[in-house]
Structure formats: C-alpha cells, structure tokens
C-alpha cells in the first residue's frame, strides 16, 4: 500500500517482486555481519531508515503552508504554494530541498478527517514528488531559523486524474551530520479539490453569517428625558471600529451569498451608541462614550450589506435555549421571557436595518438538541430549529439534505458538523488558516461527489468568530461560490427543500446531550434570580406614572441575563444579574416612608402625620398608605384598628398623610405604617413607632376650672381696692389745698384706713399675684415639653 501511494501508476507482478527481493538478500549476505556493527542502518534498508529517522532526524523540520492558490484549481491554472521551513533540530540540515508531492484521491469524508489529524506525520505516505524544476533548494538550514519557500507548478504537472480531493504534501528533505543521506525531515499535508468542469448536479449550500456579541448594555439609564444608556464597558466600540471583529464580519460578508443571523440586542446596543451614552469604568465611575461616529458608520455599512439578503433574527439577547430547557422551565415565568425576547424583534430589526427579518428559526448552542430543547425552542413561535449532524445523526453512506420534519409541525434544519466546525480553533497562523480553508473545500466537494442526487447543505459556524476565523470563512466561501460543484441558497429555501426519506428524524434523548455543553449552562439559581427581579419590577411599575421608563430597560436587561454569551463566564453572569437586581432595588427604595420617632398624644383625639418620600424623577400613584394600631384597645386609627388613605407624590417631592386617632386609655401603643399597591401587595419596608397617650379626665378639668375661678375673684378684689384708694387720694388732695390757703385747718382723714394700711394692702395683693400656681390652677392645652434630648418626641396636630 505504501508503494502504491508513493509510486502511483506503477505495477509489477508478485513473482517478479519476489525474485528481485530474493536476489538483493543473497547479494547482501556477505555484508550482513559488517552492517550489524554500524551504529545505524544504511539507506538501503527501508525499515532501518524509518527507525533512524524517528530516532534523530525525521520531524526535526517544521513545514508551514501559508498559502495555496488557487484553492480549487481548474484546467490551465498554476498552483502556487508559499510557506516557511524551520529547522527545530540541533544540527544543521544540508542539501535541503522542498518539493510538492501529490498523493492518491480521498474518496470519503472520514479519510479527510483522518489525514487532517496527522497532517505533519513524516512516517505516513507523502505521495509522488513533482520534482524537477519545481523544487526549491537550501544549501544549509540553520537550527532555529525559518526560511521561506515559494513553489509554482502548472496544474497539468500534478498529474491529477478524475474529479475529487487529492492529498497535496509539501515535504522538506535533506541530510544531517548524524544521518548523511537524503531523507524526509518535515512534511505538511493539505487538500487539493479538483473539479475542473461544471458538475452535473450542484450541491445547494447555505452559509449562516452570525452577527452576535457579548452583553454590553446595563439596565441603568440616565434621569434625563432621553434616558441616556449606560454600558458596562467599551468593548463593543472596539468590535465595530475599523479592523474590529464585527467590522470585519460586515465587510467580509458584504460580497458573499450568505444568510445573516443577527441578535437584535447587538443592533439595539450599537444604535444606542449613535446618541449620547455612558460607559462605566472598572472603578465604577461613568464617563461619556465617544464612539458615536463609529457606531453610525457601522450601522450604515450593515444596512447596505443586508440589502436584498435574507436576515434571520434571533430572539432579543440570544437566549440560551438549552439552559432554559434544562434548568429554567420549572421556574415560573421563565418561558415568558423567551416570548418577550421574540416579540422585541419587531421593535428593533426593522427599525434599524429597514428590512423585515425572519423569526421562524431557533438556534440552540452548537446545534445540540434533545426533546426538551426542541419544545422550548418552538414555544415562542419558531417552527424551525437549527440542529447539527453530530447531534441528530444519520446512519447513511452519504450526507442527506438538511431539512427533515420531526413532527408537530416542526422542521429540524440539520447543519453539517464537519463543515460547520472547520473554522474553529486558533487560526492566527496563516498555515492553520490555509489548512482550514482547504479542508472545508475538500469536505464540500467530497460530499457533492457522494451521489448524483442534488442535496441542500447548511453550514452553521460558531456564533462569534474571531477576525482570523472570519477571514478564513470568507476565503473558503468565496472559493466555494466561484467553484464548479456548489451553488448558494438561503436558509428559508433550505428549510423548505424536499427532505430525504432515509434521513434520521428522531430527536436524540436528553442523555445524549454533550456533558461539556451542559457544564456551561446557566443554573436554576440564575432563573430564580431573574424571576425575583421580574416580581419586583411588576410590583414597582404599577405605581409609576410613566412605567415605560423602567419596564423597557429592565425587560431588555432580563433578556440579556439569559444570553448564550454567558456560557463559560459564570462569574460575569452572576455579576450582571446582581447589578440589575441591585439597581432595581435602589429605584424601589426611592419611594419610601420617612421614619418616625415616638409621638406624644394628649387628649382623647389627635391627627398623626406620616410622610411618604419620592426620590424618583417621575411621579407615583396608585399607592395606599395603611396606618395600623398594634393595640387598638388603647389607640384606634380612624375609629378602627387601621385606616387606609390613597397616596400620590410628584417626582422629587414628599407628601404627608394625616390620620385621625382616638385614645381610650393612657400608656404606649405601637403603630405601623405600610405602603400597599392597589392590588394589595406590600410596597417597601414598614415604619413602626410608639404613641404615648396621656388622657385628660373630668376630675382634672374640674380642678382646672376651680383654679380659673380663683384667679377671677382675686382680680376683682384687686380692682375694688385700687378704686377705693384712688378716691381717698382725691379727698386728701382737696383738703391739702385748703390748708395751703390758710382758710381752714388741716382736715382729718375721712377714710378710717391709714395710708400705711393702703400700702400694705397693695403689697399683699401684689404678693398674691406673684405667688406660684397651685395644682388646681388652669393647665396648658398641650402636653408639657419633654426633658429628653430633641427628637425623641413628635408633636401632632389636634
């Protein structure tokens, strides 16, 4: 077999080969003893040569094929191969030369996979060397130094036969001091598709071109009229900037016949960046975003790229269908988020891209499905599920068409796993990218040659290809679309194609779901946290005068919490959910009751005020404030154990609500104030305070009345005494004037009370007036001020 591979086309009878080998052994018998004394076998013995190579030379030189053009040659083309050879050994390689070697055609898709796994194995067959002038020579290869090569060969010199995929090996041969004979020291195998003429039956190929990114927008928005959005980072600006990943996806996809698969959240996020937006730094401080021009340019280019092309819209945020099916369906309300995410497409994609997308498709991660995933995927209206052939497998000698009905009006569109995974892995090196392109083309051509029947094939690559992966995808797809064995087809057409009756239509059980994918799923706790956020939002929105300012950003944030992009990033997913929940809690706490200290109540009844504060920018309504007495036998509120009053507070204001209270006994009574929504659900934390009751009895009122009467009588006595004194003073003045004239003698006082007695009475009256009040004196109309520090008591309105 090795001989047939190395010297394709030779033929010799078994008898002749036996005679030749026997003669060689007889001729070499005298030298056998001497040869056994050598440290290594000579090149004359093929098996001895292989062991010597494995010991000290073979594989010591790495060969990298950086480009192969054209990727799929036709008649009259010249195949050019460029790359580098690097001596990884410790000894120089002399008399080195690089040549191309064409191996036999690869008739099955599994043989292509097998060759790709050992593409640099020097022990395997390398094929027949083209040789001659199509060889590049190096007199010396210094250890650790990479040397470039460039070989161009007319395709006619490759001696290709019938249509198919051929092994093309680039081999470096040379000598070392330890092994001074010509040997293969390094090789790199690749694939050369050969279809020089138009195929009679072309394969219809659908290539999905995904525009999906990570979660970037938070639930937080500014308090201004425009509700300036806040981004958790500025990574999206880098992706859409010139040369960025998403910029390359749009630029490369513009000239290809593809089906665009877009996450509406990406469009909404970039559209938000075209206006004012904020970016939160690692220190928690927000700064103004500066990528408005970049965002506008990217959207403009995307609008041009998708014009006239099929656009498939995923549900908003690209929810993880497998996580939802396995861990979320038992959490109340989880499926409703998927329905909301699907409905959000109509308000996003047509508005931004000016095209109507298809929402009939669901795309589980890596196309892995089981019955529960299928059920969830179609629960929001999609009737087509993009699966993959390594999940929904077929036991056929050929690859069937992608579409197949699986019952219940659902169609599984099964993407080809080999072609879909061709561009995964690290393709930063040109050699890795070239090998991926050639392998993809080889799989496509081999698939097309399996049968004369026309089939529809779907390629669903990874959701977020890197720049290098996207470039390799575009290169391969460009060659495929310009080739002779394939033609492009939209995803909708592939889903409607006639299914193969022999194809598998049975969805694999849950036990067949890949454990590696299950480990990356969102846990049940994630959906429980989302449910709590939803409950808090539902309780909050009913009191708002403009609920859209809160419902829309938080609704979209909850969609993002279920995103497929959180796979493999569990810590970041928890952080995002916590941030959403915390921010909503802060808004809810913006409407609250002001705490009260102990309230003192004198008398049978009084008004107790309770204050509601609204720190939101919008007004709140549809709230009721309930004041409840915990000891209604001592203190009643509005004649009962509690009383409710409606509450409406403008944004940024406070509102005091007054309740009538009545006391039945002295002492302390606990009172609780609690806000409720109109549907009877508690809102916010309650406020509890004490009311100290000091009731005024009839006996106390009698004592107070007696004291007032005494004060009146004392005042009347003072008034009469002063009046008599004034009269005496007037009479004495008149008598004194007569004596001064000498007409009459000094008159005796008419009032028997001496002047000294008058002054004494006035002094006594004054002393009584200044005397301290007695217990029976009238009391103030309010309770005495407390001697405690300020703030321990609160006055009430009576």
Automatic annotation (TrEMBL):
Write down the superkingdom of origin.
Bacteria
Residue ranges, annotated region (Disordered): 67-96, 488-518, 729-798
The UniProt entry, under InterPro entries, shows: DUF6049 (IPR046112), Ig-like_fold (IPR013783), TonB_box_CS (IPR010916)
Indicate, by first and last residue, each region the UniProt record lists as having compositional bias (Low complexity).
74-89, 493-502, 769-784
Q: Does the keyword rRNA-binding apply?
A: no
Pfam families the record matches? DUF6049 (PF19516)
Is Cell cycle there in the keyword field?
no
Question: Which residues, by range, are in coiled-coil regions?
Answer: none
**Bias type Basic and acidic residues, positions:** 755-767
User: So where does this one cross the membrane?
Assistant: 700-719
Q: Where is the composition biased (Acidic residues)?
A: 732-743
Identify the PROSITE patterns for this entry: TONB_DEPENDENT_REC_1 (PS00430)
Tell me which UniProt keywords the record has, alphabetically.
Membrane, Transmembrane, Transmembrane helix
What is the recorded name of this protein? DUF6049 family protein
Q: Which organism is it from?
A: Streptomyces coeruleofuscus
């Amino acid at each position: 077999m090795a001989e047939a591979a190395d010297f394709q086309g030779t033929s010799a009878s078994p008898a002749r080969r036996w005679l030749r080998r026997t003669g060689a052994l007889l001729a070499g018998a005298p030298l056998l003893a001497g040869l056994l004394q050598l440290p290594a076998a000579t090149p004359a013995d093929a098996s001895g040569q292989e062991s010597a190579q494995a010991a000290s030379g073979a594989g010591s030189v790495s060969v990298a094929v950086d480009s192969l053009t054209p990727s799929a040659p036709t008649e009259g083309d010249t195949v050019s191969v460029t790359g580098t050879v690097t001596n990884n050994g410790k000894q120089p390689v002399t008399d080195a030369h690089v040549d191309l070697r064409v191996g036999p055609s690869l008739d099955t898709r599994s043989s292509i996979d097998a060759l790709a796994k050992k593409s640099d194995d020097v022990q395997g067959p390398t094929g027949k060397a083209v040789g001659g002038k199509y060889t590049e020579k190096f007199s010396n290869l210094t250890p650790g130094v990479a040397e470039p090569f460039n070989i161009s060969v007319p395709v006619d010199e490759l001696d290709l036969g019938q249509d198919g995929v051929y092994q093309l090996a680039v081999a470096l041969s040379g000598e070392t001091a330890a092994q001074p004979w010509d040997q293969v020291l390094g090789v790199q195998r690749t694939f050369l598709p050969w279809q020089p003429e138009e195929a009679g039956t072309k394969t219809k190929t659908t290539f999905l071109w995904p525009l999906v990114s990570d979660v970037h927008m938070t639930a937080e928005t500014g308090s201004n009229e425009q509700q300036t959005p806040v981004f958790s980072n500025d990574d999206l600006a880098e992706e859409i900037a010139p040369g960025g990943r998403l910029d390359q996806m749009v630029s490369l996809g513009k000239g290809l016949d593809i089906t665009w698969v877009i996450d509406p959240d990406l469009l909404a996020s970039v559209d938000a960046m075209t206006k004012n937006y904020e970016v939160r730094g690692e220190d928690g401080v927000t700064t103004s975003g500066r990528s408005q021009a970049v965002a506008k340019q990217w959207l403009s280019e995307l609008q041009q790229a998708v014009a006239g092309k099929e656009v498939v819209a995923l549900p908003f945020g690209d929810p993880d269908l497998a996580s939802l099916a396995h861990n979320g369906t038992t959490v109340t309300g989880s499926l409703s988020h998927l329905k909301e995410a699907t409905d959000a497409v109509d308000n996003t994609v047509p508005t931004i891209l000016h095209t109507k997308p298809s929402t009939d498709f669901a795309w589980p991660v890596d196309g892995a499905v089981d019955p529960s995933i299928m059920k969830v995927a179609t629960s929001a209206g999609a009737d087509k599920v993009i699966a993959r052939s390594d999940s929904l497998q077929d036991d056929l000698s050929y690859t069937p068409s992608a579409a197949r009905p699986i019952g219940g009006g659902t169609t599984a569109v099964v993407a080809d796993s080999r072609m879909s995974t061709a561009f995964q892995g690290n393709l930063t090196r040109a050699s890795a990218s070239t090998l991926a392109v050639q392998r993809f083309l080889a799989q496509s051509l081999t698939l097309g040659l399996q049968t004369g029947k026309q089939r529809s094939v779907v390629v669903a690559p990874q959701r977020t290809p890197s720049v290098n992966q996207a470039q390799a995808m575009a290169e391969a797809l460009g060659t495929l679309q310009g080739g002779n064995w394939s033609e492009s087809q939209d995803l909708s057409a592939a889903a409607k194609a006639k299914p193969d009756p022999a194809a598998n239509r049975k969805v694999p059980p849950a036990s067949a779901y890949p454990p590696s994918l299950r480990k990356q799923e969102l846990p049940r706790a994630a959906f429980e946290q989302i449910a709590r956020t939803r409950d808090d939002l539902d309780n909050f929105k009913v009191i708002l005068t403009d609920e859209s300012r809160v419902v829309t950003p938080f609704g979209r944030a909850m969609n993002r919490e279920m995103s497929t992009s959180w796979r493999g990033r569990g810590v970041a997913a928890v952080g995002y959910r916590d941030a959403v929940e915390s921010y909503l809690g802060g808004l809810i706490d913006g409407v609250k009751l002001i705490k009260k200290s102990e309230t003192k109540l004198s008398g049978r009844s009084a008004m107790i005020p309770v204050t509601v504060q609204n720190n939101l920018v919008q007004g709140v309504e549809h709230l009721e404030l309930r004041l409840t007495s915990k000891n209604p036998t001592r203190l009643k509120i509005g004649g009962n154990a509690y009383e409710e009053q409606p509450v409406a507070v403008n944004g940024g204001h406070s509102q005091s609500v007054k309740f009538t209270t009545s006391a039945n006994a002295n002492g302390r009574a606990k009172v609780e104030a609690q806000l409720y929504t109109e549907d009877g659900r508690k809102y916010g934390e309650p406020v509890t305070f004490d009311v100290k009751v000091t009731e005024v009895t009839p006996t106390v009122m009698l004592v107070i009345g007696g004291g007032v009467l005494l004060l009146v009588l004392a005042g009347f006595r003072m008034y009469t005494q002063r009046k008599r004194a004034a009269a005496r003073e007037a009479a004495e003045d008149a008598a004194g004037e007569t004596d001064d004239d000498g007409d009459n003698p000094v008159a005796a006082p008419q009032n028997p009370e001496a002047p000294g007695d008058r002054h004494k009475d006035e002094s006594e009256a004054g002393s009584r007036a200044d005397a301290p009040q007695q217990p029976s004196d009238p009391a103030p109309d309010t309770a005495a001020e407390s001697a405690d520090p300020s703030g321990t008591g609160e006055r009430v309105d009576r």
